[in-house]
Amino acid sequence: MSLPAYIRSLFGRFFYRSEVADEMEEELLSHVEHRADDLERSGLDRVTAERRARIEFGAHERYKEESFETLGGNFFDTLARDVRLALRVLRKSPGFLVAAVLTLALAIGANAVVFGIMNGIVLRPLNVPQVETLLGTHYGDGSGFQSYANYLDLRDHNHSFEDVAAFNMAFVGLDKGNDPAAATGFAATGNYFDVLRIHPYLGRFFHASDEHGPNSAPYLVLTYAYWHSRFQDDPGVIGRVVQLDRHPYTIIGVAPPGFQGTILFVAPDFFMPIDNQEQVAPEGSLTARGSIHSIFDTFGHLKPGVTPAQATADVNAIGASLAKAYPKEVSHQATTLLRPGLTAFTGPARAFVGGLMLLSGLILLAACANLGSLFAAHAADRSREVALRLALGSSRNRILRQLMTEALLISLAGGALGLMASVALLRKISVWQPFAGAPLHIPVSPDAKLYIVAVALAVLSGFLFGIVPVRQVLRANPYEIVKAGSSPRLGRRLTLRDILLVLQIAICAVLVTSSMVAVRGLARSLKSDFGFEPRNTMLLGANLGMAGYDNDRVLPTQKRLMDAMASIPGVESVGLVNNYPPLVYTAAFRANMFKDETRDMNNANAASAPYKYEVSPGYFEAAGTHFLAGRSFDWHDDKNGPPVAIANAEFARKMFGSVTDAIGKFCRRQNGVRVQIVGVVESGKYLGITDQQEPAIFLPTLQAPLNNGYLVVRSRRDPQELAAAMRSKAREVDSGLPVDIRSWNDMLSVVLFPSRMATASLGVLGFMGAMLSITGIFGMAAYSVSKRLRELGIRMALGAKRTEVLKAALGRAVRLLAIGSATGLILGILASKVLASIVYQATSRDPLVLAGVVVAMALLGVLATWIPAQRALAVNPLILLRED
Q: What does pTM read for this prediction?
């Protein structure tokens, strides 16, 4: 038969099935009539002959089904019948249906949410053209920053990129008239938009041709979101002049709606030429080779034919040549080329999301094990029905197909419900602002990948728990089942359902262990020795550059602000720290320090690279940092006095051998200046709470003034009342000065965010694991009791004690709970490395964690077996035996 003829035949069988069925019926009846004629000629009467012919021929419907299958037109009809039958069967077991659908909805929803986060942060590229050839270069001192001079050499001397652009973050005060407000932007090189190959929504972008030296390009490009929120979609904004830190800038364009910068989780408000960076960020020098405040990240498109490996070698060669040419300013480490958007954060982000994905996968596996056990029990309850269908001629494949259809219907319903919940949650996460005043967003809006993954997980889950009853159907003996009745024999051997329950409990124990570890990690983070005391401490951020103060007016104004804060009733002490205090926004910078006898100030000769802070007199008292030796700074430690410093204990021991030996000793800075150590304070944490005790050195802010800093105010007054008083005093000093007033604990939210997110995420996963464990144990115990009621009644009639009855009814479930819990606890201990990527100071070997897991699993066991135990003890032997 030709292909067109076959297609026409198949089309006819689909859409004219009744006519084909009538023809088959006529054909089958003719065969029966012919056989009856033969039997009649052999001597039988007509009625008997027709009866025997029908018996010999068999069921007409079976032959018609086989004929349709042979013709290829039976698939959709059979599928429709399977679906209708599956719906009728599931409708008869609403409890099983609801439990199964909700279980899968929770598991698939959790996996969809975690995948959505991973897709938005790790997998999804920037929304720019030809992103597949766009790579970010992360090199320098390992902090994500580098100097502008290094960037120029990379841009001009590489042989791998078509062009290289760079950007830095800028925190400014933007005034469009009489309403100054803090804003966050990117100070970008002139070729920034050209390298990204994007086009403006309104106006134009700035280009390299607009740059003519420092402060030569006072232009602004607004992001679409900021144009919408701050300028109300006004198309007349183009050409308008606004003030950035009291410097005039002209708005020349608006970026397209889908573009939100080149850091995935930071949404800038504007873009400005980097040539003007020093106006808003004096520390971001464009000329100092050793500056690490000039460039945050660089990126570019690879030239055709250049591989990432070749580009990496090229950039490494440039970095090595810079380190050789400028040994005092450049300390090049290995270059990494990564997808832009997460360049400096790729490792931690992938570790965190990967760990969550693994644990959410365990949730799905536990759910499948749970449903596999329930589905096997559900199939066992239908053993008599299966036996009758086999006895009536149905094939085992047909029955297995029916069971698989039921499993897929359950999984698709659970997947749809879980997907809807996950989409709603992801949309809320996408607009969530975790930190007040920070331009952070989590780009997790659902897309086609999420829907595909959710459907794939639903189908895979249905297949996994749907194949569990295959063995019992294939080995079913219809005669034995009908003869024995519907009650199964519960022997002592380990069954597949037992193995699935142990697997499920083990997984749930791992998840409970993870949540316990997360809770302990959060408790440690809150009680950690930071090297300062954030309680009863308020921070007032004042960027004098935003208010237009020049360098000569910075110190006097900062002193006036400190005196104003100190005059507030209830304030115990006040200090100042340049830039940010420790652990705030993870903004800590290192500086090379050298032994006093060192004369060659190359980076390789540095004795230590401590974190560096500039602080005022009174800072340590306000911060609650304890002195171990020496003195604090006073107001005589200014530019006219000798260079002095205060070290922490770790720096003192590393540099001078001990705390006491450090007092009065000298060390040198990168510029060769000798600095005398006049005090030693306790060590602490400066960049992140997961850090070990690191060296740190504190310099007098009077000797290194900066227009951007935070006042540290210690007081036991109510924080809200104190904040109002601080704001009032700041206005008395300068009514136009924008200030940011928050408690130090609130400002720690950024560094505590991973621990809190880990605790919340693992807590949710642990709770889901606990629920699955309860349903699994309850299902096993309830099934065991329901199938052994007659046996339990006989035991009680023969005088068995209540404990013996409970042991007989629930002993198997309790043993499986113990085996699964022990296995899960061991796996949780072995999973410390995975947990360490998510949780602060993760250790599942903590005695409190181990004890908590044991108690939690025991309580889960009690909750899960309580109702079956009550049912077993309530058995009335007389009623049961009378019913039999």
A: 0.73
